[in-house]
Amino acid sequence: RVGSITLLGEFLGAMDEFHADEVAFGDYGAKPSAWMVEAAYGFELAGKEATLAASYQQTNEALALELPKKRILLGVSAEVMEGLSLGVELARDTDYSVADGGTGEDSDTLTLQLAAEF
């Protein structure tokens, strides 16, 4: 974290390939992995804490886990009152290609979240 900016990165992956009858990718056992990077900016909005964030995520060989190949996220959240925040997030998912067994299509999701902290 540097001032009001937070940068995050994560990687998660299987250490070994699965057997094809457990988790497959194409005709062989998958070795799924996923990574993400996120940047967030904290600021005040009407005297309350707020955050604006953007993220890029990608998976490999994770089609059988029903995860998208790529995801781009944009979100904003703000404190409504102490311990209560409201957020909205827009995500665009890109499925695996048809050649890999997916649809190759994009889908968009809009999420509205009311979160309580106690």
Q: Per the principal axes of the C-alpha atoms, what is the gross shape? A: elongated
Report mean pLDDT, rounded to a whole number: 96
- Report the span from N to C terminus: 24 Å
Strand order of the largest sheet: 1-4-5-6-7-8
Summing up helix and strand content along with how strands pair, one would put the structural category as mainly beta
Question: Main sheet?
Answer: 6 strands, antiparallel
Number of strands: 8
Could you walk me through the main structural features you see in this protein, from its secondary elements to its overall organization?
This protein has no helices and eight strands. The protein has a domain at 44-118. It is elongated and about 55 Å long. The chain has 118 residues and is mainly beta. The model has no long low-confidence stretch (mean pLDDT 96). The strands form two sheets. A six-stranded antiparallel beta sheet has the order 1-4-5-6-7-8, with no helix packed on it. Strands 2-3 form a two-stranded antiparallel ribbon. The chain is 0% helix and 62% strand.
